Each structure stands twice: as C-alpha cells, then as structure tokens.
Fold this sequence. Notes:
CATH architecture of the largest domain: Distorted Sandwich
Organism: Paractinoplanes toevensis
Order of helices and strands: HHHHHHHHEEEEEEEEEEH
Mean pLDDT: 78
GO molecular function, one term: metalloendopeptidase activity
CATH class of the largest domain: Mainly Beta
Number of domains: 2
Strand content: 5-15%
Helix content: 25-40%
Bound molecules: zinc ion
Low-confidence stretches: 5-71, 204-212
CATH topology of the largest domain: Glucose Permease (Domain IIA)
Number of helices: 9
Structural class: alpha+beta
InterPro entries: Cell_wall_metabolism_enzyme, Dup_hybrid_motif, M23ase_b-sheet_dom
Shape: elongated
Largest sheet: 8 strands, antiparallel
Protein name: M23ase beta-sheet core domain-containing protein
Amino acid sequence: MSTRVLAWIAITACTVILLCTGSVTALFGGGSGDGITAVSCYLPTASGSPAGSTSGTPPSNTSSPSAAPAGSLPRVAGWSAEQVANAAAIVTAGRYRPIPRRGWVIAVATAIQESSLHNSEGGDRDSVGLFQQRPSQGWGSPAKLQDPAYAADTFYAALDQVPGWQQLALTEAAQAVQHSAYPDAYAKHEAAATALVNALAGADPDGCFATGAWTQPVNAPVGSGFRTSGRPGHDGVDLIAPRGFTIRAASAGKVIRVRCNAIDARDGSEWGCDRDGSPELTRGCGWYVDIAHAAGIITRYCHMGRPPAVVVGAAVVAGQPIGVVGSTGHSSGPHLHFEVHTNADESTAGAINPIPFMIRNGAPLGEMN
Length: 369
Ligand SMILES: [Zn+2]
C-alpha cells in the first residue's frame, strides 16, 4: 500500500471516524466552545410552556376558540378551511392551557388520524368529534366533545398525565392517550401536523421547529459526556442502552449518510461491522447514520448493531426507528454514541454538546421514568 493511500485512509478516517478519541480535534484544530451561542432554540420556561407561546391571545370565548374571524387563518396546502380551522382550535387550546408546542403537534397528528380534522358527529361506536373520544369512556358528553376547544383540552389534560410525554415518540404519546387499535397510525401524520402547527403558530424564529419537534434517540442513561477532560475529542455523548434497543431519529429530517466505518487500528484494514469492535483495536463509528435537520443541524448515531433501517435520501420523522444499539466500531460495549452538529458541518468543528441542545428542544437526554 502506497504512502499516499495510507495518508488518504488516515485523513478520511479522522474526518468521520475517530469519534471517541482525541485525534479529531487535534487534526482540525477545532473544539473550542460548544457552539451553544450559535444556536438559540426553544427553551422551556419554568411552567413548561414554550417561550412566548403564552403571549398568544387567549380565546375570548373559551368554549369556541375555533370561531376565529373567517379569513384570519392561513391557507395550508392540502387542507380545507374547515380542517385548518379545526387545527387552529387545537393549537389555540394548547396555547391557552398552556402545554408545550410538542403537544400541539401530537394533538393535531392525533386528530388527523382520528377524524381527518373533520368535527364529525359520530364514528366508530359512540366516538365523537376531532379526537373520536367516547362519552362512554368518560371523556364528556357528546355535545361537549363536538366542541373542538373542549375536545382538545381533554386530550391535553390526558396527555399531561402521561409521564415523560415530551420524551416519547409521537406515536407512543398519542397512543398513551387514545388507546387506539392502530397505534402505529399516528406517526405518519407527524410531518403534516408539524406543517399545520407551523402555519398556524409560526415557525420558531430560529428555525428550530421548521421541520419538527425533537425527541430522545434512546431513553437511556448518559454514560460519557461531551469533550470531557479525560476525553477531549469525544464529540458526542454515550447513551448506555442495551444491545438491540431501538434507536430513533431525534427530529424530522433527511438521511444523508449510512455507513459502516470500522478500521483495524493495527494495519488500517477493514475491521467490518458484522462483528463488535474493540476500544483498542478498532477505529470508527461502526454502523452509523447522519440525519440533516432544519437550520443546519445534523445528528449522528454510531455503533449500531445491525445495518441501519434507513437509506440515504430517506425522509424521517421524529421518533422514527432508524436502527438498533450495538457495539460496532470503536466501542467497548453496547451504547449509542450521539452527536449534534451545527452549520451543516459534519466535521468535529461543527459538533456541539448534545445535552444542552436537547434540553433546549424539549427532549432532555438521560433515562426518563
Ligand atoms: Zn462515544
């Protein structure tokens, strides 16, 4: 093997591989600061509501917030004025309660699945209204459940009782409230619900919500932090989840990289991802996925145990399974190495500390409940 080839291997390896060592930072000379000031995203207030969300005008008649003046609502492609008005009622009820913005998306997605945002008089069995809630199950009288504001508020009340709902995938949060016979049906509406919420409530001024809310990639303890003194080149956090645990997209976006990256440190040959790596003998991220999100954010998920469940170019929604936890590449045991990058920069220079970033986006890392 020529020197040139070896040099190429070293450079390409270092650009994306040596995620758990100090050499990436050294190579790029980056790593000063974590870039927090470069990103200013949603910061939950003490009450748990999104900053600024409560400044919206509460409905003058809380029993009918959907009675907004005709023409005051935006047109949203693919939805009738009636459907948009019903989505607006759901968003207004969420603001008024208040409940964080993630809840508005969950509620609108649920109503899309249950009623296509039509405030129907009847449905399956005694189900009524936007959320197809059942009077016989204690949700309220049929007349009340046909009031979008009341129906949405009862949905939010139930959602708020679900422990850690902001960290759940949309489908899990919705299912915890609805107990549907088709729990997986909610997830497919997340993008549409996000678009409706953004159209009605305005996208986050910093773009952090332009394509969707955030969720934990795995619900697991943080075992090793970002650029600690002992591992200054550790450009992510290690989430200690068991082998085979589902890894989820942290937010909606597009898959931009799916790759096995595992190099035998002794001779630069391919180690492969069909077996576990070694902390001493293996370099690289193993099976990994990069997802590009709005506002130049990229998330990276390393050491997957099997080939990822997504392909390059695929659009994903928050909470969508993308692979399973393993120990491929430079790894001493099963875990998810999770990175967040800014400025659409996949190199170490773009990496920021995922912990404050995920807190700001309403999906703190670490084991919940
Ligand atoms: Zn790591």
